[in-house]
Amino acid sequence: MSLRGTALARLKGGSFDVLIVGGGINGAVSAAVLAGRGANVALVDRDDFGSFTSQASSNLVWGGFKYLEGFEIPLVRKLCVSRNRLLKAYPDNIKQIAFLATLDDTSPHPTWLAILGAAGYWGLGGFRTHRPRYLSAESIEALEPIVRTDKSIGGIQYYDAYLPDNDSRFVFGFVRSAMDVGATAVNYVEAVDAERVGDRWNVRLKDVDGGGEAFTCSARILVNAAGPFVDAVNFDLDVRTRHRIVYSKGIHLIVPQITTNHRVLAFYDDTQRLFYVIPMGRRSVIGTTDTRVDSPFTEVTDEDRDFLLEQINGRLDLEKPLTRDDIIADRTGVRPLVVASGDDDGKDVDWTKLSRKHEIETDGRRNVISIFGGKLTDCLNVGEEVAAAVEDLGVPLEDDTHSWYGEPAKATRVEFYRQARLMRLDDLRNKPDVEPLSDRLWRRYGRRAFEMLDEIRQDPAMGEDIIERADYLRVELYLAAETEMVTKLEDFLRRRSKITQVIPEEEVAASPGLHEAAEILFGDRADERLEEYYGEVPPRPS
Fold first, then answer.
1. What is the residue-averaged pLDDT of the chain?
2. Global model pTM greater than 0.90
3. What is the CA radius of gyration of the chain?
4. Residue 94 and residue 85 in contact, taking contact as beta carbons nearer than 8 Å
5. What integer pLDDT is reported at residue 348 of this predicted model?
6. Would the pLDDT of 64 be above 90?
7. How far apart are the first and last CA of the chain?
């Protein structure tokens, strides 16, 4: 039976301490901490894990420099501490990176204030990052010749962190950690309704990918981690809360690499909002925008694309201006921003000044914990606060040893690299500007990477790329099929990997290895999954 099938069987008729609805970063981290501390936990998502807001981030792990504009000093301090914890716990998955912010006469703040803000930000982060510094226009031009400095009044360089891989893969890491210690986690399962019976919830669920089969489970506590849908879930549960969510739409455009210098470029757009050029391997990500919307369902419009292209073309000295034809992929999502429930659903709130804070509310009468807002940087805090709320509702947890998050011990890492070096793993690849295989496999898989070394030793074909330019080995596909609950083709192409974020869709569809990849992932259902994703089964290249 598949990993998903086994988990689904455990979910049907199961009795749990906690059922978490929503498998984005908040739900995933809640499952990891609760399972890691001994609770019997189930996690469901009506789509794939990390498939909504959590797959549309900027891939940044940062303390919120821009929140200093609103004098939210405690929030910035809290986020900086969270960033530092993540940097320490995930040294290969989260990396420190420089932000170069260029200012001009239209910027909302004078240079001296930006310098003061950078110094204060460094201090709020406990001086754990590299020292910030002021840059003259000439210095900016020397560091990044591609940045236009004809109107610049100088700038600053400060430091935060980012994910070299993708956000939704980081989310799945928490799901996988929860499963490793006994949690039952299933994607494509929808919570249809729930009834409070005595001191438990009876929840009716539907297998969205299994023909709509309905079944039930029960739990003492429900955790509403539905992200942008938290209010709708609470309405169905008859839970009243002090907070609600409003939506801000953000988009990113992924284009060919703009600069080989490994730093984030920051600018103020014409509306005096910050936007960035962020490294993504051999690509660059431009974004994000900030548009108030009333629905969590969004799309990237031509107006969105043209706005960002106009902003970046006006601030970079490019050989040729970027056009829509240069866009490899785009991403869009909403930020669920927290407001007080009495604020007319946020219509009277200046949403442009709302930060990415989170709020956690507990309904002790109905045993429901609701998570409002939040961001990837703050995930460990969210998990710990949910665990405290679960204990307050009467479910005892084991002491927190912090073993539910982070990468394997340093000695394990050293042993992996020793074995990789002995078998000359990195010699299997000879591509320019591509990180060594040993780095990539360790970062993505941790302890599971040892299994890959064994497979490649036994069969060198396991060390070959399957999809051209995708930088994914055959052995990775087999491991994904067995351990990563890949249910649909998009789960792999978009979330467990970032293939369709860095390679045009038409190029992936035409790849000679696509059919083999689908067969490894889905077996007899390969053509069904290909047709589901593309609308038809792509022809096999001759």
1. 94
2. yes
3. 23
4. no
5. 58
6. no
7. 34
H or E element, residue 335: strand 329-340
pLDDT in tens, 475-496: 999 999 999 999 999 999 999 9
Among 319, 317, 332, which residue's Cα sits nearest to residue 285?
332
Q: Which residue has the tokens 């489970």?
A: 217
Please say whether the beta carbons of 253 and 327 come within 8 A: yes
Contact between 29 and 223 (Cβ < 8 Å)? no
In this structure, which amino acid lies at residue 357?
A: K
261-312 confidence digits (pLDDT tens) = 999 999 999 988 999 999 999 999 999 999 999 999 999 999 999 999 999 9
HSE (side-chain half, CA atoms, 13 Å) at 79: 26
SS3 category, 311:
helix
Beta bridge partners of 249: 291, 334
What DSSP letter does each residue of 431-488 carry, written as one string?
Answer: -TT---HHHHHHHHHGGGHHHHHHHHHH-GGGGSBSSTTS--BHHHHHHHHHHS---S
Helix (H) / strand (E) containing 44: strand 41-45
209 by Cβ neighbours in 10 Å (0-12 / 13-18 / 19+) ranks as middle
Tokens of 411: 């000695």
